[in-house]
Queue: 2 jobs
Job 1
Amino acid sequence: MTAVSRLILSSLAAIALFSQTVGAQQSVSVNEQAAADAVAKFVERAREENGLPKLRRIRDRYLRPDACRRARGGDKSVRRSTGIGPPEKVGMLSAIWYSTLDPNQPPAELLEWAKGPARQYEQPYRFAVGVCLVSAAKDSEQQYWIDVGTYMSAIKSLLNVPTWD
């Protein structure tokens, strides 16, 4: 076998290995997107069933990293918060985060949260979902960490300047 043949064979093997790795990474992002879509549908359905206005779905680039940070820390609790926080969260009204093995089975807390806030509080106009999927190497179990946020209207978010004392 000549050096050229070996070079061609090793290049083909590297390409095959690279495409398998990329395929595995894509399937994770596809699974995360499918989970985000499922959660979004639950939020939309809960609001519709309770006669609440439809929210426009947006992308919040901070939600997935927040979910992945919680995944690294192993935080599987269900929690809620108001949008008061760092400057990149300007416009966020509330958030809920949780962990689940099945994103198609929302916790009761998510459905209750989607019905809020009460009428006397500022009402959201937009929402976003961030998902971080972690697969355990030792078994095929997949754990989803999910963050969902509601936001003011885009114009109000632009005009909202936080003041920090």
Job 2
Amino acid sequence: MNYELTANLILKKIQSGRIDYGPFEDLWQIMLNCNDQDLAHRINVALRKEIGRAMKSAGEFAGKFYDLYRRSLLFDAPNYLDSYLLYIEIDRPLEERFYQTRRNTLKPIVDALQALADDELDELFVAQPPRTGKTSLMAFAMTWLMGKYPGKPNLYSSYSDTITRSFYNAVYEILTDKETYLFTDVFPQRAKIKTNAADETIDIGRKKHYPSLTCRSIDGTLNGACDVDGGFAIGDDFVSGYEEALSKDRMIKLWGKVSNNYISRGKATTKFIWVGTRWSNLDPEGMRLDLLENGSENKSRRFKVINLPALDEKDQSNFDYPFKKGFSTAAYKQIRENFERNNDMASWLAQYMGEPIEREGTLFTPDDFRYYNGELPPGQPDRVFMAVDPAYGGGDFVASPVCMQYGDLIYVPGVVYNNGDKSVTQPIIASVAKKYGVSAIQVEVNKSTEPYKEGIGDELKKIGHKVTLFSKNSSSPIAKTQKIFEKAPDIREHFVFLDSGVRDREYAKFMENVFSFKINLSDNQKKKQHDDAPDSLAQACDYLFAKSIKFTIFNRPF
């Protein structure tokens, strides 16, 4: 029998006809009899999708469809983490389920964990804000790995015995609480569990020299306690917090511990998962990433980095989970404002946005600047100007402050800060220029960005706003950094920015980029640093504080 062809024919019948349970059961039987696991999985996924549609108007068949949905999840659960996570909590009230209520956000991490289990990746780096479920997700995933690969030893490590004990307890609860979790439905042959609470170890099945799971802090005894041969090693928050992250010496010492005590527990077949706050480029995750990216011996390691920031590109919360389990956009904006008021945007960027920032060497801090509440001084400004640092998307941002000059002070009522392509950013610049009555726009250009200025001109013509549009040759990366450094005193003294409470999304992101800019970086770090916002301010200084040229009218002498 051609199972794929038959399945497709049944699917077409399901999709085209009235709700009838019979074809669904037929498709289930086709899937059960299929010997190709990948094909069976694809048929099963398609079946669940159709069940989801049918359940909305299942009527008398609702009970049968729900039963089939459970069977479908259970069939995939031993081999597919997403199905496992949905199934083992299926008997809990919806509002109490960990994964299903957070699935929309956490699914990319689950997919990456699946890739590790399928040997498509060797290492995974995950950054998430505090209390958004990253450690709990790892505990659920660990139970699946232990059930799927009972003979392979696994390791969980963190900076504190308290955290490793909490992880041990979470894994033990999922494995043994049959009233809440259906682990033994998925892995009935793994019901025999041996534990050692003092050593924080769990064995599935027979007792082994190296247990199925060992939980141990980075300062605990790791040597000889675990050999993660073919298993998974999870490193979760090796940095204890702010104080440790501030100390370069402590970061270097910590990396020595992680390298010698933790990484050495693995073999070539070990899968490493790095989870936690990205405090610093010198934290263990940063050091390991640098080694994978630049170390000649690690080029063969397949790795993936997932950063789920508190706020997305639209300044909206990524973790506004149902049933008030997460954090709203308003809550995160309030947290961000508190960090800014405390002159500690580096901690906000590290803990909540997954952007490790070295505090030592940042050129600007929030306390450096002047602010206003959005109400401009009375009267007309002396001039209204924009300086544009262009980009064509791909990660780089178009940055441009709107500069309203009142004597020696430059008020910035709005900015452009957008990483879209030119079809998005050129109309935005033109629209912002018209909104604020901008009379001159300077665009920094090179051979590749000269057409960008012309595109702004075309957009200005479309909306009927006339400005003086001119270009300025761009600097080399070294000269650009030097220029920002030289113009920093003028930016601090003369520019007046909006208070944090009245900024829109782009303005807030623009200021974050200013506060994260550093001078003393390695060549590799310079390549990764986005300097678009501070560069646009330095360009504005070039224009606004250049020496004026004076003209005198006199009679021609001949």
